[in-house]
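thread from #wetlab-drylab

HS: before we spend reagent money on co-crystallization trials with flavin-adenine dinucleotide, can we at least see a predicted complex? here's what I'd submit
DV: go for it
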Amino acid sequence: MTAKKSVAIIGGGTVGLYLAATLANDVRLTVFEASVPASAAPDALLGTRRELGQHDGSRTGWRSGLGGTSRIWGGQLLPWEDWEFQGVGGPAWPIESSEISPHYDRVRTKLGLSSTHAAIHERDWRTAEFAGGDLSIRRSTWMSPNERDFTKNSALKRHLGKVRVETDFLVTRIERTPVGLVVVGDRRGEEVRSEAFVDVVLTAGVLGNVRLLDRYFRGDKANLVGAGFMDHVSARVARLRVSDWSRFREHAAQRKIQGVRTSVKYVTTPEFVRREGVHPGYGHWEFDVSQSALAETLRTRVLTRRSLSELPREGLSALRALKSATAGAHRPLPDFATPYLRVDVEQLPSRERSLRWHADSGGEAMQIRWEISDDDVRSIRLIGDRVLSALTDDDIGASPDCRIETLSPIDTKHMMGGALMGLTAAESVVDTWGAVHGSSGLWVGGASVFPSGGVANPTFTALALADRMADAIKS
Ligand SMILES: Cc1cc2nc3c(=O)[nH]c(=O)nc-3n(C[C@H](O)[C@H](O)[C@H](O)COP(=O)(O)OP(=O)(O)OC[C@H]3O[C@@H](n4cnc5c(N)ncnc54)[C@H](O)[C@@H]3O)c2cc1C
C-alpha cells in the first residue's frame, strides 16, 4: 500500500474546511487555524499598524476560528453564467465556465444541499422579453443556518472527523526546505515549526493569503501579490410605494420553494453591459421594517394583553401579513415594511485598489487601497433606472415613491483578488488550478484568485474552484 501524501491547509474557514472535507479520504491532512479571539484578531491577522482605508468588509467582514466567515455569512448561492467568466466589461478568466460548472454540482452534494437548490439554480428564470433583453431574472438560494455554518454542516462533519486540526496556530510563514514545505507559526507567543508537507494550500481568506504570499516571496512579486483587490459595490436607488401588497409580496418577497429560501435578482445581460458601458450588476429588494410598529405590537400583545380588536392598526396588519406570508411560503413581509430597490455591481480589478503587507521594525501591517469609482456609481444608477423602468405597478403592485438622488454606496463584504489567476508567472500569481507559478506544492484557494468578480455572490464559485483544485492535488 502506498503512503498517502501529506498536505497542509492554512486557514480552517469556509474554503479551508470545504477543501479539507473533500481531500480527507485521499491525503494525510493537517489544517492550521489561527483561532484568534475577536478582540485580538485584527492586531494578530492584519497587524498593529494597519491602514484599512474606506473598505468596511476588511474591518467587519471576516471571522477567525474554525468555520471562519462561514459562521456569519448569508449562505446565499448563485452559480455564475458563462459570460461572468468571460469577463464582460473586464478581464476574462483563463478557463472556460464549462470547466467549473460540474463542480457546482459536487459542491451542492458535498454540502448536503437538497436537489431543490440545483433545480432552482438550473431552471431558466430568464424571460427573454424582460426589459427588452437588457435584464434577466434569476433566483438565488439560501442555505439554512445549520448548512451554512461549516462547523455545523453535517455532510462536511462526516469527513472532517478524519482530519488533524491544529488550532491556536497563527501561521507566520511557509518555508521551502529540501524535504518539503514547512509551516512556521506562532502558538501562544512561541514559534512552532511543523513537519514537512508535499503540498500546502493557503485558504486564509483574501487578506490572510496576501500576508502569507508576501512573506513567502519576501517582497519579490510585489507588483503581483495584492494586486487586483476588489469587491462588489452596492447602494439603494429608490424607495417604493406599494399599491397591492399581495401582488408585491408574490413578486418581491423571499419565497420558499420545497423548503429552500430563494430570492429574486434582476441581472444585467452582457448585451446591456456592452451597450451602456456599465459594470455587470443586479437589482434586488430590501425592506426596512418599522421598529416602532413592531415594538408597539409586542407591547400591546405581551404587556397589556388587550383583546385582538384593540390591537393597533400596525399590529393587525402585521398579523395579517404574517399569516398570508406564511401561507404563501414567503418570508414574512409585513405591509408596514418600506421596500427599497438596491443595486449591486461588480468592481473591475484596477491599479487603484490593492492589498499590501508590510513587516518592518515598526511592526506588521496590512495596507488597503480601495475606493469606489465614478464608474461604479454610474453603473449603479443606470442599472437601477433600467430595473425600475421595466417593472410597472400593474406587474408588481408597487412603483417608485422616491428616487435616491445622492447614493450612499458601500462594499458588500465580498473580498476578492490579491492572488490573481493567469496563464503566466509574469502576469499572475497562480495558474488555472490555483498552483502558485514556479513554486511546486504551494496552492492558493478562495476568491483571492478571481481575475474578475462576476455579478453573483462569490463563495459558491470559490468552493467550486476549490473542488476542482482538490482533483489536481489528489492526482
Ligand atoms: C456578513 C457577510 C455575508 C456574506 N454573505 C455571503 C453570501 O450570502 N454569499 C456569498 O457567496 N458570500 C457571502 N459573503 C462572503 C463570504 O463569507 C466569503 O467569501 C467567504 O466566507 C470567504 O471564505 P474564506 O475561506 O476565503 O475565508 P474565511 O472563511 O474568512 O476563512 C479564513 C480563515 O483563515 C484563518 N487565518 C487567516 N490568517 C491565518 C494565518 N496566518 N494562520 C492561520 N489561520 C489563518 C482565519 O482565522 C479564518 O478562519 C459574506 C460575507 C459577510 C461578511
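DV: The pocket of flavin-adenine dinucleotide is lined by residues 10-16, 32-34, 45, 61-62, 64-65, 68-70, 72-76, 170-171, 203-205, 208, 413-414, 446-447, 457-460 (CB under 6 Å).
HS: ok that's useful, forwarding to the group
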